[in-house]
Design goal:
By secondary structure, the protein is an alpha+beta fold. The chain has 8 helices and 18 strands.
Length: 317
Protein backbone atom coordinates (compact mmCIF):
# COMPACT_ATOMS: atom_id res chain seq x y z
CA UNK A 1 0.00 0.00 0.00
CA UNK A 2 1.32 3.45 -0.90
CA UNK A 3 0.08 6.76 0.46
CA UNK A 4 1.33 10.31 -0.10
CA UNK A 5 3.15 11.99 2.75
CA UNK A 6 3.04 15.76 3.31
CA UNK A 7 6.83 15.91 3.26
CA UNK A 8 6.81 14.57 -0.29
CA UNK A 9 8.15 11.08 0.54
CA UNK A 10 5.98 8.00 0.03
CA UNK A 11 5.28 5.55 2.85
CA UNK A 12 5.71 2.27 0.98
CA UNK A 13 4.92 -0.89 2.94
CA UNK A 14 5.69 -2.96 -0.17
CA UNK A 15 9.38 -2.28 0.46
CA UNK A 16 9.53 -4.45 3.58
CA UNK A 17 9.06 -8.21 3.89
CA UNK A 18 8.28 -10.11 7.06
CA UNK A 19 10.20 -13.35 6.85
CA UNK A 20 8.77 -16.32 8.72
CA UNK A 21 11.13 -18.76 10.37
CA UNK A 22 10.79 -22.13 8.66
CA UNK A 23 12.63 -24.19 11.26
CA UNK A 24 14.34 -25.99 8.37
CA UNK A 25 17.04 -23.43 7.61
CA UNK A 26 17.17 -21.49 4.38
CA UNK A 27 16.69 -18.12 6.06
CA UNK A 28 20.03 -16.81 4.80
CA UNK A 29 19.13 -17.54 1.17
CA UNK A 30 15.76 -15.86 1.67
CA UNK A 31 17.31 -12.80 3.33
CA UNK A 32 19.88 -12.37 0.55
CA UNK A 33 17.23 -12.75 -2.16
CA UNK A 34 15.16 -9.96 -0.59
CA UNK A 35 18.15 -7.68 -0.03
CA UNK A 36 19.08 -8.11 -3.69
CA UNK A 37 15.65 -6.65 -4.55
CA UNK A 38 16.56 -3.66 -2.34
CA UNK A 39 13.92 -4.66 0.21
CA UNK A 40 14.08 -4.39 3.99
CA UNK A 41 13.81 -7.72 5.84
CA UNK A 42 12.03 -8.09 9.20
CA UNK A 43 12.10 -11.27 11.25
CA UNK A 44 9.87 -11.44 14.31
CA UNK A 45 10.07 -13.26 17.63
CA UNK A 46 13.65 -14.49 17.41
CA UNK A 47 16.11 -14.38 20.28
CA UNK A 48 19.31 -12.36 20.40
CA UNK A 49 21.55 -15.39 19.88
CA UNK A 50 19.69 -16.29 16.67
CA UNK A 51 20.03 -12.70 15.46
CA UNK A 52 23.79 -12.84 16.09
CA UNK A 53 24.10 -16.12 14.18
CA UNK A 54 22.01 -14.94 11.22
CA UNK A 55 23.90 -11.66 10.99
CA UNK A 56 27.18 -13.56 10.82
CA UNK A 57 25.92 -15.97 8.17
CA UNK A 58 24.54 -13.18 5.95
CA UNK A 59 27.77 -11.18 6.34
CA UNK A 60 29.86 -14.23 5.46
CA UNK A 61 27.86 -14.87 2.29
CA UNK A 62 28.53 -11.29 1.22
CA UNK A 63 32.24 -11.52 2.04
CA UNK A 64 31.77 -9.14 4.99
CA UNK A 65 32.55 -11.42 7.93
CA UNK A 66 35.83 -9.67 8.76
CA UNK A 67 34.19 -6.25 8.52
CA UNK A 68 31.45 -7.41 10.92
CA UNK A 69 34.07 -8.48 13.47
CA UNK A 70 36.00 -5.22 13.07
CA UNK A 71 32.93 -3.04 13.64
CA UNK A 72 31.99 -5.00 16.76
CA UNK A 73 35.56 -4.60 18.06
CA UNK A 74 35.63 -0.86 17.29
CA UNK A 75 32.50 -0.31 19.40
CA UNK A 76 34.27 -1.35 22.58
CA UNK A 77 37.62 0.19 21.59
CA UNK A 78 36.25 3.70 20.97
CA UNK A 79 34.04 3.56 24.06
CA UNK A 80 31.01 5.39 22.63
CA UNK A 81 29.10 2.10 22.43
CA UNK A 82 29.31 -1.25 24.18
CA UNK A 83 28.98 -4.77 22.80
CA UNK A 84 25.76 -6.74 23.17
CA UNK A 85 26.32 -10.34 22.14
CA UNK A 86 28.97 -11.21 19.55
CA UNK A 87 28.31 -8.72 16.77
CA UNK A 88 25.67 -6.29 18.01
CA UNK A 89 26.39 -3.09 19.89
CA UNK A 90 24.42 -0.47 21.79
CA UNK A 91 23.15 2.55 19.88
CA UNK A 92 24.48 5.99 20.77
CA UNK A 93 23.17 7.47 24.02
CA UNK A 94 20.36 9.99 23.56
CA UNK A 95 19.70 13.24 25.34
CA UNK A 96 16.14 14.15 26.33
CA UNK A 97 13.98 14.72 23.22
CA UNK A 98 16.87 13.91 20.88
CA UNK A 99 16.05 12.38 17.49
CA UNK A 100 18.44 10.86 14.95
CA UNK A 101 18.05 12.23 11.38
CA UNK A 102 18.38 9.76 8.46
CA UNK A 103 21.86 8.57 7.58
CA UNK A 104 23.75 5.50 6.42
CA UNK A 105 26.25 4.34 9.01
CA UNK A 106 29.85 5.36 8.41
CA UNK A 107 31.55 7.20 5.57
CA UNK A 108 32.77 6.61 2.04
CA UNK A 109 36.17 5.65 3.48
CA UNK A 110 34.69 2.85 5.61
CA UNK A 111 32.05 1.82 3.05
CA UNK A 112 29.88 -0.33 5.33
CA UNK A 113 27.46 -2.42 3.28
CA UNK A 114 25.03 -4.08 5.69
CA UNK A 115 23.03 -2.79 8.67
CA UNK A 116 20.86 -4.66 11.16
CA UNK A 117 18.85 -3.79 14.27
CA UNK A 118 17.56 -6.02 17.06
CA UNK A 119 14.93 -4.94 19.59
CA UNK A 120 15.12 -5.96 23.24
CA UNK A 121 12.60 -3.44 24.59
CA UNK A 122 10.71 -0.43 23.21
CA UNK A 123 8.08 0.94 25.61
CA UNK A 124 8.61 4.68 25.03
CA UNK A 125 5.88 6.88 23.55
CA UNK A 126 8.12 7.37 20.50
CA UNK A 127 11.40 5.83 19.42
CA UNK A 128 10.00 4.95 16.02
CA UNK A 129 12.44 3.74 13.37
CA UNK A 130 12.04 5.43 9.99
CA UNK A 131 13.95 3.90 7.08
CA UNK A 132 14.43 6.15 4.05
CA UNK A 133 15.17 4.70 0.59
CA UNK A 134 17.78 6.90 -1.08
CA UNK A 135 17.21 8.07 -4.66
CA UNK A 136 20.61 7.47 -6.18
CA UNK A 137 19.53 8.78 -9.59
CA UNK A 138 18.57 12.23 -8.33
CA UNK A 139 20.49 15.24 -9.62
CA UNK A 140 20.53 16.53 -6.03
CA UNK A 141 23.76 14.67 -5.26
CA UNK A 142 25.68 17.39 -7.08
CA UNK A 143 24.46 19.79 -4.37
CA UNK A 144 25.58 17.64 -1.42
CA UNK A 145 29.00 17.52 0.20
CA UNK A 146 30.84 14.98 2.34
CA UNK A 147 33.27 15.87 5.11
CA UNK A 148 36.39 13.85 4.27
CA UNK A 149 40.15 13.91 4.36
CA UNK A 150 42.22 14.37 1.22
CA UNK A 151 45.95 14.28 0.60
CA UNK A 152 48.41 16.30 -1.46
CA UNK A 153 51.89 15.00 -2.26
CA UNK A 154 54.97 16.54 -3.77
CA UNK A 155 56.49 13.19 -4.74
CA UNK A 156 55.53 9.59 -5.45
CA UNK A 157 54.69 7.48 -2.40
CA UNK A 158 55.94 3.94 -1.92
CA UNK A 159 53.46 1.10 -1.39
CA UNK A 160 54.42 0.99 2.29
CA UNK A 161 53.79 4.73 2.64
CA UNK A 162 50.40 4.41 0.93
CA UNK A 163 49.46 1.71 3.46
CA UNK A 164 50.59 3.98 6.33
CA UNK A 165 48.55 6.89 4.99
CA UNK A 166 45.45 4.71 4.93
CA UNK A 167 46.04 3.41 8.45
CA UNK A 168 47.10 6.65 10.12
CA UNK A 169 45.02 9.26 8.30
CA UNK A 170 42.14 7.31 6.70
CA UNK A 171 43.05 8.53 3.23
CA UNK A 172 43.30 6.27 0.17
CA UNK A 173 46.09 7.57 -2.02
CA UNK A 174 46.18 8.30 -4.89
CA UNK A 175 42.36 8.11 -5.19
CA UNK A 176 41.85 10.67 -2.41
CA UNK A 177 44.16 13.32 -3.79
CA UNK A 178 43.03 16.92 -3.24
CA UNK A 179 40.84 18.24 -6.10
CA UNK A 180 40.30 21.78 -7.32
CA UNK A 181 36.60 21.66 -6.40
CA UNK A 182 37.22 20.53 -2.79
CA UNK A 183 36.43 23.18 -0.18
CA UNK A 184 39.37 23.21 2.23
CA UNK A 185 38.46 23.59 5.92
CA UNK A 186 41.86 22.88 7.43
CA UNK A 187 45.16 21.11 6.89
CA UNK A 188 47.85 19.29 8.85
CA UNK A 189 51.39 18.20 8.19
CA UNK A 190 52.34 14.53 8.50
CA UNK A 191 55.37 12.44 9.38
CA UNK A 192 55.50 11.25 5.76
CA UNK A 193 57.77 13.62 3.80
CA UNK A 194 55.98 15.46 1.01
CA UNK A 195 52.45 14.60 2.24
CA UNK A 196 49.89 17.11 3.57
CA UNK A 197 46.43 16.08 4.78
CA UNK A 198 43.40 18.37 4.30
CA UNK A 199 39.94 18.36 5.87
CA UNK A 200 37.55 19.23 3.07
CA UNK A 201 33.96 19.35 1.90
CA UNK A 202 33.98 17.18 -1.22
CA UNK A 203 31.38 16.18 -3.78
CA UNK A 204 29.96 12.73 -2.91
CA UNK A 205 31.43 9.78 -4.73
CA UNK A 206 29.74 6.47 -5.45
CA UNK A 207 30.38 3.30 -3.45
CA UNK A 208 30.17 -0.21 -4.88
CA UNK A 209 27.34 -2.29 -3.41
CA UNK A 210 28.13 -5.98 -2.94
CA UNK A 211 24.41 -6.63 -2.52
CA UNK A 212 23.22 -4.90 -5.70
CA UNK A 213 26.53 -5.23 -7.64
CA UNK A 214 26.64 -1.65 -8.82
CA UNK A 215 27.95 1.73 -7.67
CA UNK A 216 25.63 3.98 -5.66
CA UNK A 217 25.46 7.37 -4.00
CA UNK A 218 25.11 6.99 -0.23
CA UNK A 219 23.84 9.38 2.46
CA UNK A 220 26.70 8.73 4.86
CA UNK A 221 26.98 10.07 8.41
CA UNK A 222 29.71 12.29 7.00
CA UNK A 223 27.14 13.91 4.68
CA UNK A 224 24.01 14.02 6.84
CA UNK A 225 25.61 15.10 10.13
CA UNK A 226 27.35 18.15 8.70
CA UNK A 227 24.22 19.52 6.97
CA UNK A 228 22.27 22.06 8.99
CA UNK A 229 19.22 21.52 6.79
CA UNK A 230 19.05 17.81 7.60
CA UNK A 231 17.64 18.32 11.11
CA UNK A 232 15.18 20.93 9.84
CA UNK A 233 13.84 18.58 7.18
CA UNK A 234 13.64 15.72 9.67
CA UNK A 235 11.81 17.86 12.23
CA UNK A 236 9.25 18.77 9.56
CA UNK A 237 8.83 15.11 8.64
CA UNK A 238 8.28 14.04 12.26
CA UNK A 239 5.83 16.85 12.91
CA UNK A 240 3.83 16.17 9.75
CA UNK A 241 3.71 12.45 10.55
CA UNK A 242 2.56 13.11 14.13
CA UNK A 243 5.75 11.62 15.58
CA UNK A 244 7.47 14.68 17.04
CA UNK A 245 7.56 14.87 20.85
CA UNK A 246 7.96 18.39 22.24
CA UNK A 247 8.26 19.72 25.78
CA UNK A 248 6.02 22.57 27.02
CA UNK A 249 7.10 25.73 25.27
CA UNK A 250 8.38 23.98 22.17
CA UNK A 251 11.55 22.19 21.18
CA UNK A 252 14.93 23.80 20.51
CA UNK A 253 16.52 22.24 17.42
CA UNK A 254 19.81 21.95 19.29
CA UNK A 255 18.06 19.68 21.79
CA UNK A 256 16.48 17.63 19.01
CA UNK A 257 19.86 17.09 17.32
CA UNK A 258 22.94 17.31 19.53
CA UNK A 259 25.23 17.12 16.48
CA UNK A 260 24.40 20.75 15.62
CA UNK A 261 27.95 21.77 16.56
CA UNK A 262 29.13 19.58 13.67
CA UNK A 263 27.03 21.40 11.07
CA UNK A 264 29.48 22.87 8.58
CA UNK A 265 27.08 24.12 5.93
CA UNK A 266 23.47 24.06 4.69
CA UNK A 267 22.70 22.14 1.50
CA UNK A 268 19.18 23.45 0.84
CA UNK A 269 18.19 19.89 -0.13
CA UNK A 270 14.56 18.82 0.26
CA UNK A 271 13.72 15.26 1.26
CA UNK A 272 11.41 14.82 -1.73
CA UNK A 273 14.50 15.10 -3.97
CA UNK A 274 16.65 12.82 -1.84
CA UNK A 275 14.42 9.85 -0.96
CA UNK A 276 12.14 7.61 -3.04
CA UNK A 277 10.07 6.31 -0.13
CA UNK A 278 10.10 5.56 3.59
CA UNK A 279 9.13 2.75 5.96
CA UNK A 280 7.91 3.57 9.48
CA UNK A 281 8.46 0.85 12.11
CA UNK A 282 7.78 0.66 15.81
CA UNK A 283 10.14 -2.18 16.67
CA UNK A 284 8.94 -4.78 19.17
CA UNK A 285 10.96 -7.18 21.36
CA UNK A 286 12.35 -9.98 19.22
CA UNK A 287 12.27 -7.96 15.99
CA UNK A 288 15.37 -8.35 13.80
CA UNK A 289 15.63 -5.99 10.81
CA UNK A 290 18.26 -6.16 8.04
CA UNK A 291 18.85 -3.65 5.25
CA UNK A 292 21.34 -2.50 2.65
CA UNK A 293 23.29 0.24 4.45
CA UNK A 294 24.07 1.93 1.12
CA UNK A 295 20.51 2.34 -0.15
CA UNK A 296 18.54 2.72 3.09
CA UNK A 297 19.22 5.53 5.55
CA UNK A 298 18.00 4.85 9.09
CA UNK A 299 16.58 7.37 11.56
CA UNK A 300 14.73 7.42 14.88
CA UNK A 301 12.02 9.71 16.22
CA UNK A 302 12.33 11.16 19.71
CA UNK A 303 10.27 10.35 22.81
CA UNK A 304 9.10 11.98 26.03
CA UNK A 305 11.58 11.58 28.90
CA UNK A 306 10.46 8.93 31.38
CA UNK A 307 7.85 7.44 29.02
CA UNK A 308 9.54 4.04 28.88
CA UNK A 309 12.68 2.17 27.88
CA UNK A 310 14.12 1.74 24.39
CA UNK A 311 16.87 -0.87 24.07
CA UNK A 312 17.88 -1.47 20.46
CA UNK A 313 21.13 -3.11 19.37
CA UNK A 314 22.80 -2.48 16.01
CA UNK A 315 25.27 -4.41 13.86
CA UNK A 316 27.15 -3.25 10.78
CA UNK A 317 29.39 -4.87 8.19
Amino acid sequence: METNSDIGVLEDTNKIRILERSGRGGEVDAILALLQQDLVVRLKNIDATEADELMRKVADRLGLGEQLELQAAFAAYHGHRHNIGKYFMSVDRRNDYQAIPPHSEGSSFIGMQLAAFYCYENTTDGGVTILMNVDGSSAIWQSLREYVKKGMVSRSLSSNEIARVRSLYQVNMPADVLRDDDQILGKRSTDIPGLTIFNVLAMPKKTYSRILTRELYVLWDSISNIDGDSVIQYTNLLRQCGLLKEPPGGLDLQKLDNTSAQHLWRSGVHYSHLFKCKITLKLSPGDFVLLNNLTWAHSVSNWSPGSGIRKIAAAFA
